[in-house]
Amino acid sequence: MTVLLEKKYIPLANYFAGATNSSIKLTFSEIEQIMGQNLPNAAYLNKSWWKKVKAPAKHFHAWLDAGYYVSNVEPDRFVVFERIDASTGNGIDDDDDDQDILLIRTAEHGDARTLAALQKLVESESDFMLYAKDERTQSTQKVRKQIIEWKQSGHSVIIVAILNGQHVGFLTIMGNDAKRAAHRATIDLGLQKDAQGKGIAQSLLKKAEEWARAKEITRLEVTVVEENEAARKLYEKTGFHSEGIREKSMMIDDKPHNELYLTKFLN
């Protein structure tokens, strides 16, 4: 990145930095999901805001520094970004248009509405989450408050996975205020079904470990329903090991189920 971007455009820059597609079409809503914040009014009102490539504007570096330019804008609908051929300065026409673009970042308060809906969706699709379908009363305001409070606490955070401009997964890290337990944190991971099998869960866990290490957290803990073989294999593959069984700790369809205690040490 050649210039110091405003903080809110950094996730957008990271998104384009990880892209290889020759053409990327994003709705205004998807762009705001990537950023975790709203676009300025000028972005909605003027095509020229997207076409700027000179100072004092800086926002365009989010895509230009990754080799993209804006080829088309439909105000309040979508923006089309084309990859630049360094040898000709023109757009590239190749077969990379169907490549997935994944962005993993910490949640911002602007993610609250989408995150609340995502949590509800994931819980409705899974048989093994703590909350069953439609059981959790999760409002946008409640999620926004949690995001803000956790960021201020410094020991807890929500990490989101954004695939092709859409929120598809989340991972929460819940730490501790007490000094004696400040080195440990509990994690919870959720991923919608149609985004599974793409390595997104592993990417969320990798980001979680990076964040935890930066906060001097050395022990991550998670519980998994014993029958949830896919989740158990995921955690074991990424270095977690079992510390025991939490017997009859979950009631699913009125039947008791055990949970496995899994732990990973980061030091």
TrEMBL record:
PROSITE patterns linked: GNAT (PS51186)
Key words, A-Z: Acyltransferase, Transferase
The organism's place on the tree of life at top rank: Bacteria
Stored InterPro entries: Acyl_CoA_acyltransferase (IPR016181), Bact_Acetyltransf (IPR050832), DUF7662 (IPR056079), GNAT_dom (IPR000182)
Keyword Transferase: yes
Domain spans labelled N-acetyltransferase: 102-267
GO MF annotations in UniProt: acyltransferase activity, transferring groups other than amino-acyl groups
Pfam families: Acetyltransf_1 (PF00583), DUF7662 (PF24698)
PANTHER family according to UniProt: AMINOALKYLPHOSPHONATE N-ACETYLTRANSFERASE-RELATED, AMINOALKYLPHOSPHONATE N-ACETYLTRANSFERASE-RELATED-RELATED
Protein name in the entry: GNAT family N-acetyltransferase
Originating organism: Planococcus versutus
